[in-house]
Structures are given as C-alpha cells and as structure tokens.
Design the sequence.
C-alpha cells in the first residue's frame, strides 16, 4: 500500500490569504506563527503523519493539518491531543471493561472511561500496559503542554514549529499507534493462566521471566491482582498455590508502593467486615514473611494464635506425629519478623515446652524447628527461658516430675551460646549448665 502523503504548497495560496485576513482585521502579523515557521512545520508534517496508521488519520488530524497551515499551532496541538485521548480510550475499550474492573476492584463501564480525566486515563493505560513508562512520561508532558499552551485554555505564549512537530511525534509514537509495550504482560492472559490449572515448573519460569521484563508500575499492579485473587473467597487452593508461587519469586523486590497497596487492601477487608478475605490476606502476608509490616496488635494476634495452636496439638492425641507442620509454621512466622514484646513469654513457653516434650518423649520430626527458634532467642527471651523452671506452668510440672524432661530443659538452655547470655543471667545460666 502506498503510504506517501503529499500536502499542497502554501506559498501561493494559503500564506497570502492569511496575511490578507490579518491585515483586514488590523492586527499585527505576530498573532499567528510566522510564514517561515508555518513552512517548516508544513514540510515536516508528512513524515510524522506517515508514522501514524492510516485508520487513525481521522478528522481531528485533518483539522490539525489545516490549523498548522494557517499558523494556529495552539489549535493544532489541541486536535492532536484529542485524537490521542480518543485512541487511548479505544485501547482501553478493546482491552475489556470487565478486566479493567477486576484490576481496579470495582465496576468499570464505558461511562467511567469517559468520565476519567486525561491524567487518570494515562495512569490506567500505564497500569494495564497499553503505554510504556516512557510513553507515560512523554504523554504526561504533552498533557501539560496542551493544558498550558493550546487553544483549549487562554494563554499568552506560542509554540514554534519545532515544538509542534516534537509534540506530534510524541503523540504519534506513544498514543496514535496500534502497538503496545513489547515487554509487557497481558493482564487478562496472566489472570487466566493462574485460574486454569496448577503451574508446571515451565509455566512458572515463563511468567517469572515476563514479570521480570515488565516495568515496575505494571509489576506492582500484577501483585495487587494476585493478592486480590488469593483473598477472593471463590478462589480454590490451586489458584492460591499459583499466587504464592509467583509472589515468592519476587517478594524480596516488592517496591514500597506495592507493599503500601497490599497493606491498604488488607486493612480495607477488615474495615468492610470481609472476614474471609481478611483472614486469607493475613495468610498471604504470613506465607511471604511480610507480617513485619503489620501493626503490633495484629502481629501479636497472629503469633499468639500460632503458639496456642501448637500447644493445643502438643497436648492432643498423637502429638508426636501432628506437631511438625505447626512447629514449622511458627518457625517460618517468627524467623523473618521477630516476636512482639507482648507475646515473647507465650512464645518461649510454647517452644520450650514442646522441645522438652513429656514423660513419653518428644516429636523428633519437629525438633529441628524448636532448636532453631531457641538458638535465635533474644536476650529477653533467654531471660524468660531461664525462669521457666521456677514459674508455675506446664513445663515446670514436667521438669519436677520427670528426670528426662529436666535433662531436656537443660539441653534447651545449652542451645544458647554463652556469649549471648546477658551478664545479669550468667549465674543462673552457669548453674543450669553445671547441674548434671
């Protein structure tokens, strides 16, 4: 197809007519762009227009050409901008209102699209990868220029021919095109893949690669979607497993904006009384080792519940076989986030009691988790550990009644490196150490 664009010359018809109109109105020639600027802009127009797909060269670009031919550069950029906005809206429409609604977590219809301010439209297009980060940056500049230098608003400044052509180039390159970011992620395809079946290793590697190659803004959006899917009460374990697999690959590089958005959604579930979603969100944060971002009261609740469940299983039937997953969960939960001051005693009691076991023995499969937690006790937790044999509690009664439990309590104390013991506790530590 011949894409050549040949515009008529201006010197013999249009430019003299413009001069006559200005003269007839008794106005200075400077109210419009000069003949030289018009000629230079007109000369460069075909090249920029050829870069725009033919189906997008509609009436607004025709008006832009006519405005340029008579030196109305402020009107020309207004027409170009309106054409850009129209095409971005069409891209959003083609992407699918239902998918956009899922991303924004609210109903989204055509009316909502047309009610959007231009800045909001650009942000949405960046989120769903219809424009790149470069495109967002340059189109945002174009929006500012349109607001301050176009015929859309009164202004006392004028653009020259070079500024007009650069403006057209950026709008054509980033908005008036059919292409999208080559290294982006198709959000609808991504969501479908998560929902279809449990990821194979090959699928996981493919999606990991795509997420690594996309820009930060879209990556933040995708993890927000993943969190929403995980917390959806209609999501099965297969979907949640996929969400966690992907998230664990990137949790170490979650941006501050991503963390902030996840926390906002988490507390929004609580505020709206969506207990199922709130509970699932807690689990999501726990699995990724992110509960350190929670408020102290919530961290207390999570750790306290984990300790209580471990103790409940420990004192239940067949505890030696049932303890390991609960011990592992408490270990993973506390290993990355620390222990709130308000739960330190409950935590130390639970871990030490389960490590010591009862008169029949202890859970051998869980012992590795107890040992690691004891070795990592803080000075305050060491102090609590060294006082458990004198406080009225289940552990003390076992130590008093069983030689094996007494020995294992001493073994627990010996897991603590001597240099980690506070000076004020050295005497008690050495007494237990030497008490064979």
Sequence:
């Amino acid at each position: 197809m011949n894409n050549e664009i040949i515009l008529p010359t201006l010197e013999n018809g249009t430019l003299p007519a413009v001069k006559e109109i200005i003269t007839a109105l008794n106005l200075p020639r400077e109210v419009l762009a000069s003949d030289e600027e018009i000629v230079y802009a007109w000369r460069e127009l075909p090249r920029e227009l050829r870069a725009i797909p033919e189906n997008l060269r509609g009436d607004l670009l025709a008006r832009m050409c006519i405005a340029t031919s008579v030196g109305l550069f402020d009107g020309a950029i207004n027409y170009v901008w309106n054409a850009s906005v129209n095409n971005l809206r069409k891209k959003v429409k083609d992407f699918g209102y239902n998918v956009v609604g899922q991303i924004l977590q609210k109903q989204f219809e055509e009316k909502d699209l047309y009610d959007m301010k231009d800045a909001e439209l650009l942000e949405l297009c960046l989120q769903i990868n219809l424009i790149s980060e470069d495109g967002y940056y340059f189109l945002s500049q174009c929006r500012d220029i349109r607001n301050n230098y176009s015929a859309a608003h009164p202004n006392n400044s004028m653009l020259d021919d070079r500024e007009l052509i650069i403006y057209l180039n950026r709008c054509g390159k980033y908005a008036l095109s059919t292409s999208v970011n080559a290294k982006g992620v198709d959000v609808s395809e991504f969501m479908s893949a998560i929902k279809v079946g449990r990821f194979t290793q090959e699928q996981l590697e493919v999606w990991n690669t795509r997420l690594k190659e996309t820009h930060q803004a879209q990556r933040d959006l995708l993890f927000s979607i993943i969190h929403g899917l995980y917390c959806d009460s209609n999501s099965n374990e297969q979907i949640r497993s996929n969400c966690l697999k992907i998230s664990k690959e990137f949790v170490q590089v979650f941006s501050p904006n991503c963390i902030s958005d996840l926390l906002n959604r988490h507390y929004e579930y609580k505020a709206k009384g969506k207990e199922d979603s709130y509970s699932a969100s807690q689990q999501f944060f726990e699995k990724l080792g992110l509960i350190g971002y929670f408020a102290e009261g919530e961290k207390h609740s999570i750790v306290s519940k984990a300790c209580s469940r471990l103790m409940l299983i420990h004192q239940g039937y067949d505890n030696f076989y049932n303890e390991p997953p609960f011990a592992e969960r408490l270990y993973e939960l506390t290993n990355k986030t620390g222990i709130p001051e308000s739960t330190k005693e409950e935590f130390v009691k639970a871990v030490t009691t389960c490590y010591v076991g009862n008169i029949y023995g202890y859970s051998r499969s869980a012992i590795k988790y107890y040992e690691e937690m004891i070795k990592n006790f803080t000075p305050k937790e060491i102090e609590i550990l060294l006082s458990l044999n004198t406080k009225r509690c289940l552990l003390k009664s076992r130590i008093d009644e069983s030689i094996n439990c007494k020995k294992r309590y001493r073994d627990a104390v010996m897991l603590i490196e001597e240099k980690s013991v506070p000076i004020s506790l050295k005497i008690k530590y050495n007494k237990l150490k030497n008490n064979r």
